[in-house]
Amino acid sequence: MSLYTVRPISDRTAFTGNSIDSRFTVTWSQCTDLLYRELDLLDATDLVIECDVREQDLRLDGTLRANARAASPAVRLAFESNVGPLTYATDAFRRPTWRRGGMQEDWQHNVYAIAKSLEALRLVDRYGVTKRGEQYTGFKALPAGRAMPASHMTKSEAEATLTRWGDVGLTCGTWAERYKKARAATHPDRHAGDQTAWDQVEQAAAVLGMSR
Question: What pTM did the predictor assign?
Fold first, then answer.
């Protein structure tokens, strides 16, 4: 399993905004060890970890800058697997303020929660009830898990992208309205699962500070 790419959150529909103190005491290294083990067993590729950061919080290689701080505990993991594209999202946990050891960032606790969920789903197989990864069906998504590269768009290129896909003239409509229309126009369901245009719109929105 190769290293992950970090991206700003692209879809917030799964988050509740209600988090509780985590009981997890593992380190980030222990968390990623478990996550990679479970992903290896799924033949996973193209792992993307989306957390509540801005485009400018990311290095060009898709990793977080040292001083980056997520605005919320929300996390969304997406990857390709031997049962198809899968995506998991949660903001259920936060790091207790009194805890000194273990994972230091709220979002890391939710990555561990997802890793433990993957482990639990895999263990369903021990009783021989599932044969083709049926327990993962509810987490399949279109097409989740294709890494988006760090954006190199300029502001003018981002505006042009939203204008083109938002189908409005330069003199009418707010950028928020263009973004909304562009998201609808480029949704993978309308393009036979192709997420290329959708990714371009999301990158443009991130450059303009409107990413969801």
Answer: 0.65
